[in-house]
């Protein structure tokens, strides 16, 4: 069950406005509807005010986290194990310093930074770049 | 070089033990070594004599057979059935049959036994039969066709089997026993009396202390039995089943050593006085004993096969402990059940004349070991008692607890230390304690490694808790420190976290993390920022905070901690929709409210189902519909049912004295009061209650964490029961409590559980792991041995006073409702939720 990573860095991707900071729930997730060239996608948005505690060892640092704390994550809302759109409703935490979300149905953990499933190497959720522009949340897709 | 001719091995007898010997010979490779010939007197191949009575209830000879002729042929064994050996010529080394003479180099006697027929004048009349072989059964069946009554002479194990067979043939049946009670070998007079009552209740007449003097022509029936006191009994059919005698005549005639009361004398290798000849089974006399059970016979067969191959096995006697079901009546006997072979032995007895149960323990003079036990009416105690006996496990301080009824002062299950090495841990993969221990000794240092090594707990998983306890215990005893940290974020157990929160008055997760979180997992450098927690510690801490302070779980500080069900106050189903369960305290609901539930279900297209806890579950609610659904439910007077929480669920009740002619208290009223008192109480795991209005127990309170059963004088309280995967009867904790006493006792019990249980540990498992068991729990709760009861009651009062309906709280706060949107930027419902119709309702497609 491999879920191909979306062409995350192709030139055609543009930034679009998604919602506002007030729509987010601190230390938890919400779902958003995203229109892309490839069709609509349900995205889970996680907001960790102040950022996840960044790992200090470079070896285990994902590129997206290197050097700075990331506050916002966008990841597939669809849980590949159940087929239900529920990832935004999982519990957010960190394991070995890496921010993760646990699927609310069968409890697998997905790394917020790259979508990789900790229990099953072959499973990976898509991720998108998101960031605040003032009080607005923008996503690259 | 010529192939040397194989020595001849002859086996006389093809009963259960004779056949087992053949199997052992095959298994141990004796067919390479010997040319084997087996003689059987009967025309049938070896069959299962233990289940002989089933021949009358439909099983035929073929299905009772233990093997096939093909098996013998396949292994090159010559099987000569229906050919009785009439003599052994030891000088010539031959056995003699009607067909001829056969040479042997080694010979095994497996001739078994024959039924003893007492020397009573008239015992050879037509219609006087025995009960041993399939042919005997055919004869009984034939005789029964023209009979209306039947008598079995002999009230032992086999006699009762025979009586059951006669009953099965629709005969008016009686049992005549010479001894003053039935089954004199296995039970004492109390047990015998109970057995008599039970067997008479089945319509079988029981006459004990009767010696038959003669059998003559009857007047109304075929035979008349005349007893020692001149009394008589008439019957059409008589079956003798007064014990067995060894079939030792061949051995006797050929000059082998025979015991005083019969039986071919054998040594530990199963050799007779002639080293060319061996004997096994009921014909063999070892250490002056005949073993009339199949298991010791099988052991002898194994030893004999080894002896024939110059192996070195020894028969060391056999335990005659047995459990059996006779005419539907459980009888069990372990070791020195009468206590007459153990000097200074002391006895404990339990007799319940209503339930017709009798149990007896025979304990060594120092009270430490079980030397025997006797059971009538309920063999469920047998396995545990046998472990104590067979493995010489030290008895609990109060041995009587081992035979008291389950559900009262039942003994704690044997802990990991007490289990013998042979105890089965995982029955799916047949893993014993010894297997687990050797896996640990072989380098498995945690539960996962032990599972991988032994496959234990990888089948049904029912042994998971036991395996974990055992592994932890064994690791600890080997000096391996077992990390009991709840997760990588806190180096504390759940219990320790609870105490920290309570003592320091910590009210948020972030404060707890700041002060007590561990820094492991956050890099090797100077980071001192707290971690985020995880899906283990966050809900656990959320539960602890709720148990201590009961602030709404929807508050901003608590919401990220909750499991999804608590977050949205509904139960997530497999397609991402939710089920909604409003509280229906005690299962009592007005027609008006029932109508509202129907209307809400119709309006939001919800599937409805009655739950096991006497409530109504509404399935298929979309996230974004939950607030509107609850708006209508709250409007109609409902409140949340906490079906989503590790918290008080329901208090089930029967209808009680208000309506029921048997009820002695108002069980519905009490159930409602209990549910109102404890609703919203969060605990390490869910809590289920029930209240029954009388001893008939229609509410099944003894399967609940807290069970209440009405008495004439008040309420009996049962605790720590469980249904589910590993059902456990609740135990009687306190009797005849007033309402107020009941509340107070439950307050303390629940708070003590909340304080000391592990995360996600139900009361049943908590109780089983509680050191000191039920006695300790009673000391703490009923006698206040720790001096904490005032505090426990105060804490419970705090929780009760702080209760508010979480849904009412949430729908009055627009900030909290923001979460109940399908998408933060789009109002459309999730298009991937697709329903289909089944039996007139919707379900996930």
TrEMBL record, chain A:
Residues 69-140 form the Rieske-like [2Fe-2S] domain. One of its GO terms (biological process) is nitrate assimilation. One of its GO terms (molecular function) is 2 iron, 2 sulfur cluster binding. Keywords: Nitrate assimilation, Oxidoreductase. InterPro entries: NirD, Rieske-like_NirD, Rieske_2Fe-2S_sf. PANTHER family: NITRITE REDUCTASE (NADH) SMALL SUBUNIT, PTHR40562. This is Assimilatory nitrite reductase (NAD(P)H) small subunit.
Automatic annotation (TrEMBL), chain B:
Binds 1 siroheme per subunit. Binds 1 [4Fe-4S] cluster per subunit. [4Fe-4S] cluster binds at residues 654, 660, 694, 698. Residues 425-471 form the BFD-like [2Fe-2S]-binding domain. Residues 573-635 form the Nitrite/Sulfite reductase ferredoxin-like domain. Residues 8-304 form the FAD/NAD(P)-binding domain. One of its GO terms (biological process) is nitrate assimilation. NCBIfam families: nitri_red_nirB, PRK14989.1. Belongs to the nitrite and sulfite reductase 4Fe-4S domain family. This is Assimilatory nitrite reductase (NAD(P)H) large subunit. It comes from Halomonas shengliensis.
């Amino acid at each position: 069950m491999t879920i191909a990573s979306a062409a995350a860095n192709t030139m055609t991707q543009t930034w679009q406005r998604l919602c506002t900071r007030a729509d987010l729930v601190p230390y938890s997730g919400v779902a958003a509807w995203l229109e892309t060239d490839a069709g609509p996608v349900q995205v889970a948005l996680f907001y960790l005010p102040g950022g996840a505690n960044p790992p200090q060892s470079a070896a285990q640092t994902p590129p997206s986290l290197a050097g700075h704390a990331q506050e916002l994550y966008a990841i597939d809302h669809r849980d590949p194990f159940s087929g239900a759109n529920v990832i935004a409703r999982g519990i957010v935490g960190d394991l070995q310093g890496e921010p993760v979300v646990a699927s609310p149905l069968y409890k697998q953990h997905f790394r917020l930074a790259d979508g990789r499933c900790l229990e099953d190497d072959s499973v990976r959720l898509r991720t998108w770049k998101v960031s605040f522009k003032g009080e607005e949340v923008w996503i690259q897709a | 070089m010529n192939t040397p001719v194989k020595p001849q091995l002859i086996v006389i007898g093809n009963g259960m033990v004779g056949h087992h010997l053949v199997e052992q010979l095959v298994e141990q490779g004796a067919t390479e070594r010997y040319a084997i010939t087996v003689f059987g007197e009967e025309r049938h191949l070896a069959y299962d004599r233990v289940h002989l009575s089933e021949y009358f209830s439909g099983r035929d000879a073929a299905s009772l057979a233990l093997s096939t002729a093909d098996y013998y042929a396949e292994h090159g064994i010559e099987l000569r059935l229906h050919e009785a050996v009439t003599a052994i010529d030891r000088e010539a080394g031959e056995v003699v049959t009607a067909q001829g003479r056969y040479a042997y180099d080694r010979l095994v006697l497996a001739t078994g036994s024959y039924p003893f027929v007492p020397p009573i004048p008239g015992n050879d009349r037509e219609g006087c039969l025995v009960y041993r072989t399939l042919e005997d059964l055919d004869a009984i069946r034939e005789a029964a066709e023209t009979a209306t009554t039947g008598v079995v002479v002999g009230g032992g194990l086999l006699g009762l089997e025979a009586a059951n067979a006669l009953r099965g043939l629709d005969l008016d049946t009686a049992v005549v026993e010479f001894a003053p009670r039935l089954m004199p070998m296995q039970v004492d007079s109390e047990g015998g009396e109970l057995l008599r009552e039970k067997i008479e209740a089945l319509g079988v007449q029981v006459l004990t202390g009767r010696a038959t003097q003669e059998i003559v022509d009857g007047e109304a029936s075929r035979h008349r039995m005349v007893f020692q006191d001149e009394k008589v009994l008439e019957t059409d059919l008589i079956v003798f089943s007064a014990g067995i005698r060894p079939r030792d005549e061949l051995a006797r005639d050929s000059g082998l050593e025979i015991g005083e009361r019969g039986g071919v004398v054998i040594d530990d290798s199963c050799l007779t006085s002639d080293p060319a000849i061996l004997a096994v089974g009921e014909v063999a006399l070892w250490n002056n004993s005949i073993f009339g059970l199949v298991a010791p016979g099988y052991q002898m067969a194994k030893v004999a096969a080894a002896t024939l191959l110059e192996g070195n096995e020894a028969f060391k006697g056999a335990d005659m402990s047995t459990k059996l079901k006779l005419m539907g009546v459980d009888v069990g006997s372990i070791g020195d059940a009468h206590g007459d072979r153990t000097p200074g032995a002391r006895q404990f007895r339990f007799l319940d004349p209503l339930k017709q149960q009798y149990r007896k323990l025979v304990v060594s003079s120092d009270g430490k070991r079980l030397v025997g036990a006797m059971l009538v009416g309920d063999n469920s105690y047998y396995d545990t008692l046998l472990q104590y006996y067979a493995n010489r496990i030290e008895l609990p301080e109060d041995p009587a607890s081992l035979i008291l009824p389950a559900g009262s002062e039942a003994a704690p299950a044997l802990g990991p230390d007490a289990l013998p090495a042979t105890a089965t841990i995982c029955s799916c993969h047949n893993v014993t304690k010894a297997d687990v221990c050797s896996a640990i000794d072989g380098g498995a240092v945690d539960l996962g490694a032990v599972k991988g090594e032994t496959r234990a707990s990888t089948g049904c998983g029912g042994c998971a808790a036991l395996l974990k306890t055992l592994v932890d215990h064994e690791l600890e005893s080997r000096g391996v420190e077992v990390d009991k940290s709840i997760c990588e974020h806190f180096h504390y157990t759940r219990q320790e976290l609870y105490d920290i929160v309570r003592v320091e008055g910590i009210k948020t997760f972030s404060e707890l993390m700041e002060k007590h979180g561990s820094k492991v997992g956050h890099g090797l450098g100077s980071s001192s920022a707290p971690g985020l927690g995880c899906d283990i510690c966050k809900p656990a801490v959320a539960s602890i905070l709720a148990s201590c302070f009961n602030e709404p779980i929807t508050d901003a500080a608590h919401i990220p901690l909750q499991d999804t069900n608590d977050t949205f106050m509904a139960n997530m189903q497999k397609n991402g929709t939710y089920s909604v369960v409003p509280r229906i305290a005690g299962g009592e609901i007005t027609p008006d409210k029932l109508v509202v539930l129907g209307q809400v279900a119709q309006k939001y297209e919800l599937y409805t189902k009655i739950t096991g806890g006497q409530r109504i579950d509404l399935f298929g609610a979309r996230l974004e519909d939950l607030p509107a659904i609850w708006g209508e439910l709250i409007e109609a007077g409902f409140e949340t049912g906490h079906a989503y929480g590790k918290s008080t669920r329901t208090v089930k009740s029967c209808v009680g004295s208000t309506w029921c002619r048997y009820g002695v208290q108002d069980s519905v009223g009490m159930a409602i009061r209990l549910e109102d008192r404890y609703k919203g109480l969060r605990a390490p795991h869910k809590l289920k209650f029930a209240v029954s209005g009388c001893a008939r127990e229609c509410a099944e309170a003894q399967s609940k964490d807290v069970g209440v059963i009405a008495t004439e004088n008040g309420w009996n309280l049962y605790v720590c029961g469980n249904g589910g995967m590993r059902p456990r009867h609740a135990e009687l904790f306190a009797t005849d409590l007033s309402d107020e006493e009941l509340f107070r006792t439950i307050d303390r019990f629940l708070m003590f559980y909340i304080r000391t249980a592990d995360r996600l540990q139900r009361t049943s498992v908590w109780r089983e792991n509680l050191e000191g068991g039920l006695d300790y729990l009673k000391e703490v709760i009923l006698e206040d041995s720790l001096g904490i009861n005032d505090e426990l009651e105060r804490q419970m009062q705090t929780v009760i006073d702080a209760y508010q309906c979480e849904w009412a709280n949430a729908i009055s706060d627009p900030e909290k409702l923001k979460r109940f949107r399908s998408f933060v930027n789009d109002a459309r419902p999730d298009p991937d939720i697709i329903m289909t119709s089944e039996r007139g309702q919707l379900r996930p497609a």
